[in-house]
Amino acid sequence: MHILIIEDDRNLVEAISIAFQMRWPEARLVTTSTGDKGIEMIGSETVDLVILDLGLPDMSGFEVLKQIRLFSNIPVIILTVMSDEYSIIKGLELGADDYLVKPISQLELLARVKAQIRRQAAIVQSPLVCGTLRLEPSTAQVHHGDREVHLTPTEYRILHCLMKRAGNLVSNLDLIEEAWSHDSPGANEAIKVHVRHLREKIEADPSRPKIIITKSGIGHYMAKTE
Questions:
Q1: 66 and 89 Cβ atoms separated by less than 8 Å
Q2: Which of 96, 121, 126, 172 could serve as 91's disulfide partner, Cβ 3.0–4.6 Å?
Q3: How many Cβ atoms from other residues are within 10 Å of residue 52's Cβ?
Q4: Are 51 and 4 in contact (CB under 8 A)?
Q5: What average pLDDT does range 201-221 have in this prediction?
């Protein structure tokens, strides 16, 4: 398992490395202190997950994430001191799969990383079809008619949950469990962001959704499209 840490705080990188050595020695960590180098490494090396800081010396972590999502759906976990709602929502809107605020315990960080890796490895089932949508586990992408739509790992898991239970209301708690295996502050808002992104990708008019329908304060359901 190859994990890339894009972080310029050497003390934090060392602490994370020690935690992995003690509790997950099989994982191989590679690190860089700059966003530009991190983007290059994702494009040229085998990387299974990225831990990304937002305060980098050469460019914003948001810009790094934006660049990654142009060519890769690799799981990205943001790890930052920026705890304001604007930053959290922006990170999720740009395609982050999880958002963690420093300081965080080593055990929680490892648990979040392993949860993302397990969910990626679990994508082995047959294609899932719902109306004009065909979800492909082999590529973790969805086909909408003749068009292939790019999904982030978290978007894939949420859409898979909704398609699997098409026509039935799925609670926000169930979607949170599907996406991250745990509830946390801000998770409900994060689900709203990911659902909005999915609508922008598969709805003819995202402002008037006909595929992913919301029951305010309760959850969402997938309409059985023709």
A1: no
A2: 96
A3: 24
A4: yes
A5: 92
